[in-house]
Structure formats: structure tokens, C-alpha cells
Amino acid sequence: STIILKDREGRLTLVNKRFEEWYGISARDALGKTTHALFPKYFADIVRTQDLGTAQSGSPGSVEADVAFVDGSLHKITSTKFLVPSSADDSFVVATIATDITQQRKSEEQLRQAQKMESIGQLTGGIAHDFNNLLAIVIGNLEFLQEALNDDDQNQEFTENAIAAALRGADLTQRLLAFARKQTLRPEVIDLNKLVLGMAQLLRRPLGETILIDPKTSNDLWTTEIDPAQFEAALWNLATNARHAMQ
């Protein structure tokens, strides 16, 4: 922490070594100068206002601000100010103890993010569980419908496509549940060509009739060990982002 003493006019009368290290200003150059003479106006205005408030009220006070160090890095600094007796007369001078709380703020933000992710996981798990139950009903009814249709019925293809899409949705739902429970996802060795072509079929209706989907596959493409649900989700995001970009 830095330690600074200032007289009634706001001139620095004492600084410690840490002050010199933080700001690259030697004690020789700092003593006798005001904050406005040493620092940018926006920061000096904050400091001077707090100094005057402490001097007038006589009560300790704190202020937090972003401050640039001599190496150009921006740090979060909290300054506590209070009055101490002057060694020169019977008056008081303003003392400041400034502490670098940059790492503390980063840790607090990381904790907030972790708590946020935990909440998202719980919410995701609840939604995925309910959606999984709905999909089970949809798939069951589609299978009953498929059994009721003749093999040569033209509606068989529509039913098969609907079942395939529902099964993909169920698989994605399981992946969401795995995310919510922080389970490790298992990659599979798959044919990406088939996966891309299957996703192209599913994407045509959501993307709209005005958008042409032209999947490019490769005959010599090796099988790939990948989590198919993650790949499908990434492909879905790319497609929907591309659609938004064209609007």
C-alpha cells in the first residue's frame, strides 16, 4: 500500500517507497506538489474532492478509482483518508493509505461468474428434463403413427423424418442434462459427411425457403472422433448466425 500525507493546500509532504514504484515518481519530485500537478485531471479531481471532504468533516472516507501505473497497466485502487495531527503546528493534515485491490476484484468477478454458471446449469437442467419428457411423448406417438401407415404410404417418409428430428432433439437434450450435471461428454467415431447432410435436411425449414443450403462433402474424408451433439450445435449456430448476417 502507498502512504501519502498532504498539507492543507493539498501539497504532498510525505510519500513511501511503494508510491514511487506504482507511479514512477520519486519522492524528490512529488513532495511539495499537488495531486493535479502529478496526475491526470480526472483522477486528481476525485482525489482532491475526497481530501476536502475528509478535511471538512474530520471523518475517515474511502474512494475507489482506476489508476494507471508507471508500466501502463490499469489497477483498481481504493484509498482510505483520515486526519492526523500536523508536526508543524496544531492543525491536521490529510493522510491517505491506498491499496491495490485489482486481484481481489478479479477474484470476486470469477466467483460471480462461477455462481452464474452454476445457476445457468440448474436452469438448463430443469428445462432439459421437462423437454426430454415432452420429446418422449412426441417420439412415442410418431412411432405409433408409423406402425399404422402402410409401407408404400407417402407419409412414411414424413414420419421417418419427424422421428429422426425428434431423436436428434432427445440426444441434444441429454447433452444439456450432461452439461447441467457437469458430466463428461463422450466423443464418438462418426462420418462427418452423413452428419452434415443430416443437419442440412433439418436446417432447411428453420432457415427459410429464401436461403439455399448447399452442403459440400468429401469422398476421402476420414472418420472423426467428435461429440456429435456438440458438432451439430456448432453447425446450427453457424447456420443461424449466417442467416442473421444476410438479413
Main attributes of the structure:
8 helices; 57% helix; five-stranded antiparallel β-sheet; alpha+beta; 247 residues
Your description of this structure?
This protein is of the alpha+beta class and 247 residues long. The protein is built from eight helices and seven strands, in the order E-E-H-H-H-H-E-E-E-H-H-E-H-E-H. It has helices spanning 17-23, 27-30, 35-38, 41-57, 102-148, 155-180, 192-207, 228-246; strands at 2-6, 12-15, 61-68, 74-85, 92-100, 188-190, 224-226. The strands form two sheets. A five-stranded antiparallel beta sheet has the order 2-1-5-4-3, with helices on both faces. A two-stranded antiparallel ribbon has the order 6-7. Helix 5 (102-148) packs antiparallel against helix 6 and helix 7 (192-207) runs parallel beside helix 8 (228-246). The radius of gyration is 33 Å and the shape is elongated. The relative contact order is 0.07. The model has no long low-confidence stretch (mean pLDDT 81).
Short structural description:
With 247 residues, the protein is of the alpha+beta class.
> Any low-confidence stretches, pLDDT <50, length ≥5?
none
Strand proportion, as a percent range, falls in 15-25%
The pLDDT mean sits at: 81
The number of E-state strands comes to: 7
How many helical elements?
8
CA(first)-CA(last) distance: 54 Å
Give the spatial strand order of the biggest sheet: 2-1-5-4-3
Radius of gyration: 33 Å
**What coarse outline follows from CA principal-axis ratios?**
elongated
By helix and strand content, what is the structural category?
alpha+beta
What's the helix-strand series? EEHHHHEEEHHEHEH
Mind summarizing the main beta sheet?
5 strands, antiparallel
The share of residues in helices is: 55-70%
